[in-house]
Write a structure and sequence with these properties.
alpha/beta, seven-stranded mixed β-sheet, 26 helices
């Protein structure tokens, strides 16, 4: 949910300042006139009184006008959002959503270990250890928050629903120890991991537990959220953590958040000493470091239960009880030492654990960019000044399993010493056999059948995972030796039953991007090994496909993956001066490429091109040949008439001609949590809702059912469930009168320590894109537009609003980080985009025409509008620059740098294009499907109109009274003066 901060408050106050000054001046003038016009300066009472009356009447009218201008101006967006009708979910929708959420989690729970068939539980009574069992992780913080309007099933509730009785004495121990989870919020984070020290478990408690059941479940939880990455060094400066005991430290210097604390380890020691059948449940989105498992043979089973949403823990109970057969597969690689990954030294700046090697304050901050400093109002309302920061994506395309599999093949690593659980790995209570049919390669299509048979004694589902290994030339185009290219999940198969799964994909899905020579996608000639695998490491069967001739996708008649125009290098500048990991020479440059950065100086080229609000001026980018578009025409078109019409329909020009500059500016500047009404074209205000796993209206406080985290969806490997979730988002949006959804987010799990891992799907771009595109397609089928986000390369939270320059090479940008977005446009039909906070190289992503115009619209053919991430200014966000680059709308509710200041023809043309994009998306939403929508006047406007009427009556009445009194006083004075005059003497009598 939206967290109000002082920056918002101060921005609102700042936008109101001119009006408040006007009110103050009017009031002061009335007072001055009242005191200045007195008996000494104006002796006539009637004149004096009428001047007093008129001055206050004028002040009253002026104040009402000023207040009205405040309400209809800078406050209008806030008021419209805050006073919109509260629409709740229907009981039917709630019921269906809860059932779907439970089904998703039932397929997301991933069994990582199950020695001796320890699970399902043989005993319906179980001891549940770990404080997290009483306070599990339902979602993430920030945008991932859950609504408190609906019942939430806890972990222990889920077990109870499945008929499992838990030890209440242990539960009481934990709730007595601490009831609330430490807050990991957007603006501050307490990383404390509450856990009862082993010494506080009495001998009687353990004895009673052993009498209660011979089975134990240990719960380990980890939470993450928007605004901060997980600590890579728990003793680093600025990390808030309170130890569970005064006798020892939970973490030593250099230890990280994704490994056991000392108190957790002591608890595991205690449990495994007393129980021989132990199940460990890891509840969190981030890949945990399970290096300790080999030390505890008593831990027979391990379940990964990603954040479960509001009803998902019911599924955990059913998995433990055996009512549901786990079918989840890992969305990420679990390694034995997270400090030795290829990305660790180049993540958030604290990884090296040594302030001298990571720059100012433990962050990757440039040491020569003070001249590029920018200031903005921080969340506390104080002025914040920042200089550019950076992060280097040194690993190139070798992210996650693509590194580990390739590195093992090249002899760089010993796989078993490095990897704990591979990508795509997961066990079942039954066994399956997969048989690969003959592979066909015709007309650019690769196809074959896979027959899956349940060879065990329990019904369950399996996943067919298809990988390819391309031909690689040492020193040539970088290629991983394992690449997921297709997958399908089976239906539920009864024991002995089989299903034949059809696999088909295009040969250009195996193409690689050649950033050096062809500067295009290339499918090199040679043998491609096509394999079906149980995970990224273990091959079930494989066959060879031979590409006879190299294909270069570099012409409009031969584009890659259906591109409208051939893709070519657009991000050469973003490579910077970074050394990127290369497979050449068996990863000969691994040590150099993956080391922590030692150069903290921005290059001269980057400094010359770097822009923020301190050095950007729209005038120098104006084109004198641009002609001013028509504005304010009276063509009589309404937006509802555009429903279903092509983007290029001639009527769009007529409609756009009706917009005034102010109309367009309002549409562009005030895009926070909805798009504003535009009277000239009959557009109603539309509401957009936040939340990757739900819909949260940040102003009315109404929320929908919270689903399992995006990582959980990836663990299902089930496209259909993702599609159903999108459809459910659509149904909930209809109930809540929501038009757009700020999701799904599809950034990559580049590092296990990303704070928003829960909100993103996977380390793999194909799996991420498949889940995201199906969610988008599902929502679109209900007329709801989804904002695919965060576009692009926003894979960490650290420095995200501190002008963080993300340096990456063209190949990794296209193959890894853009691919989920590309799939969402081409396969999901995405209609809206949220750009990201970060810079790509030296260009802010929200102002990158290469990204937003050339790639998104030019290559992929996207038609819709682009919205910024939250518009706080941050010293680099400004509407003038962004709208010209293809970023159409600002996610702002207050007035800062979100309004267009330049009124040149170049600027107005860009505004018109932005308005077209916004209105096209709005017109094709569900609220326009049945003609012109009927909406009530916002209550604040009704109140304002009533106030106008009352003021008018009051002013007229007081004016009449004042004039009558003035006339009466004048008349009274005239009468008195007449009566006071002496009678004139007559002529003298003659005598």
């Amino acid at each position: 949910m939206l967290q109000i901060n002082m920056a918002d408050v101060m921005n609102v106050i700042g936008s109101l300042t001119p009006y408040l000054i006007a009110i103050g001046v009017l009031f002061a003038l009335a007072l001055i006139i009242t005191f200045a016009v007195n008996k000494k300066t104006v002796k006539e009472v009637a004149t004096r009184k009428i001047v007093h009356s008129e001055s206050w009447l004028v002040a009253l009218v002026g104040i009402v006008v000023a207040v009205s201008m405040m309400l209809t101006g800078p406050l209008s967006t806030l008021l419209n959002n805050a006073t919109t009708t509260k629409y709740m979910l229907s009981d039917t929708t709630v019921s269906k959503a809860n059932e779907l959420a439970k089904e998703v989690q039932s397929e997301a729970i991933t069994m990582l270990k199950n020695d001796d068939s320890n699970l399902p539980l043989s005993n319906k009574k179980v001891n549940v250890f770990g404080w997290g069992s009483t306070n599990p992780v339902y979602g993430g913080t920030g945008s991932g928050s859950m609504s408190d309007q609906y019942e939430t099933v806890s972990m222990l509730d889920g077990m109870k629903q499945a008929g499992i009785e838990t030890n209440s004495e242990l539960t009481k121990l934990y709730t007595d120890y601490r009831k609330d989870r430490p807050m990991v919020a957007m603006w501050s984070q307490d990383w404390t991991l509450p856990e009862v020290p082993a010494k506080q478990y009495s001998d009687k408690l353990i004895s009673d537990a052993k009498d209660f059941s011979d089975e134990a479940v240990i719960t380990i939880t980890r939470v993450g959220g928007e605004g901060a990455d997980l600590p890579t060094n728990m003793k680093a400066k600025g990390i808030t953590y309170n130890n569970n005991s005064k006798d020892y430290e939970d973490f030593k210097d250099g230890e990280h958040f994704l490994q056991l604390s000392q108190t957790e380890r002591d608890m595991i020691d205690l449990v495994t000493k007393n129980f021989k059948k132990v199940t460990l449940v890891y509840n969190g989105a981030n890949a945990f470091q399970f290096d300790f498992l080999s030390q505890y043979p008593q831990i027979k089973s391990v379940l990964w239960c990603p954040p479960a949403g509001q009803t998902g823990f019911s599924a955990l109970g059913e998995v433990l009880a055996g009512d549901v057969n786990p079918s989840g597969k890992t969305s990420d690689t679990f390694v034995k030492d997270l400090t030795k990954t290829a990305v660790f030294n180049n993540t958030d700046g604290t990884a090296a654990g040594n302030a001298s090697s990571v720059g100012t304050n433990g962050k990757f901050t440039y040491d020569n960019a003070d001249d590029l400093a920018a200031s903005y109002m921080g969340f506390s309302g104080d002025k914040v000044t920042v200089t550019p920061t950076f992060v280097n994506y040194v690993e190139g395309i070798y992210v996650g399993y693509k590194f580990y599999e390739t590195a093992a093949d090249e002899g760089l690593i010993n796989y078993d010493d490095t990897v704990m659980f591979p990508f795509g790995y997961g066990l079942s209570y039954t066994t399956f056999k997969q048989e690969m049919g003959k592979v066909s390669y015709k007309n650019g299509k690769i196809s074959f059948d896979v027959t899956v048979t349940n060879t065990g004694d329990k019904a369950g589902k399996d996943v067919v995972e298809v990988y390819y290994n391309p031909p690689y030339t040492d020193g040539g185009i970088e290629k991983a030796s394992k690449n997921l290219v297709a997958f399908e999940k089976t239906k539920k198969l009864e024991p002995g039953a089989s299903q034949t799964v059809k696999i088909e994909f295009d040969d250009d899905d195996m193409a690689s991007y050649d950033q050096k020579d062809a500067k295009a996608y290339v499918l090199e000639q040679g043998d491609y090994d096509i394999s079906i695998q149980s995970d990224s490491h273990h091959v079930i069967d494989h066959q060879k496909v031979t590409v006879k001739d190299t294909v270069t996708y570099n012409s409009d008649s031969n584009t890659h993956n259906g591109d409208a125009v051939a893709a070519t290098n657009e991000f050469d500048y973003a490579a910077g001066d970074v050394t990127y990991l290369s497979r050449a020479g068996h990863f000969a440059n691994y040590a150099k490429a993956t080391a922590a950065p030692t150069n903290f100086s921005m290059s001269d080229e980057a400094k010359a091109e770097f822009t923020n609000n301190s050095n950007y001026g729209p005038k120098k980018y104006d084109n004198d040949s641009d002609e001013m578009p028509t504005t304010g025409a009276k063509n009589g078109l309404k937006l509802y008439q555009m429903y279903g019409k092509d983007y290029d329909d001639a009527d769009w020009d007529k409609l756009l001609d009706q917009l005034t500059f102010d109309d367009m500016d309002n549409l562009i500047a005030n895009g926070g949590y909805g798009t504003p009404a535009v009277k000239s074209v009959g557009k109603i205000q539309l509401t957009d809702a936040d939340g990757p796993a739900s819909l949260n209206n940040n102003f009315t406080g109404v929320g929908s059912i919270g689903f399992p985290a995006s990582t959980a969806f990836a663990c299902t490997w089930n496209r259909d469930l993702a599609k159903q979730f999108g459809e459910m988002i659509g149904d909930m949006a209809h109930d809540m009168h929501v038009a757009g959804w700020y999701a799904p987010a599809m950034n990559i799990h580049r590092s296990a320590f990303s704070g928003r891992t829960f909100e993103y799907f996977s380390e793999d771009s194909l799996l991420s894109g498949a889940m995201a595109s199906n969610e988008i397609a599902g929502a679109k089928s209900k007329g709801v537009y989804s904002f695919m986000k965060h576009f692009a390369l926003n894979d960490q939270e650290t420095n995200r609003t501190n002008m963080v320059c993300t340096w990456a090479n063209e190949q990794s940008i296209r193959e890894t980080y853009l691919k989920p977005f590309e799939m969402s446009v081409k396969e999901g039909g995405a209609q809206a985009v949220m750009s990201s906070f970060n810079y790509i190289g030296y260009t802010y992503a929200g102002a990158s025409s290469n990204l937003l115009q050339t790639v998104l619209r030019g290559e992929w053919g996207f038609k819709g509008f682009v919205l910024t991430d939250y518009f706080g200014g941050y010293g680099y966000q400004n509407a003038d620059q962004e709208v010209r680059a293809g970023n159409d709308s600002m996610l702002a509710t207050t007035k800062i740098t979100n309004h267009i200041t330049d009124k040149s023809a170049t600027s107005v043309k860009a505004m018109r294009q932005a308005a077209h994009n916004i209105l096209y998306t709005a017109a094709n939403s569900w609220q326009y499907a049945n003609g012109e929508p009927k909406v009530a006047t916002p209550i604040w406007k009704t109140a304002m109109y009533v106030a106008w009427g009352v003021t008018a009556v009051l002013v007229i009445g007081l004016e009449i009274v004042a004039i009558k009194r003035y006339l009466n006083r004048k008349k009274a004075v005239a009468t008195v003066e007449s009566a006071a005059e002496p009678v004139a003497a007559g002529p003298a009598n003659a005598e």
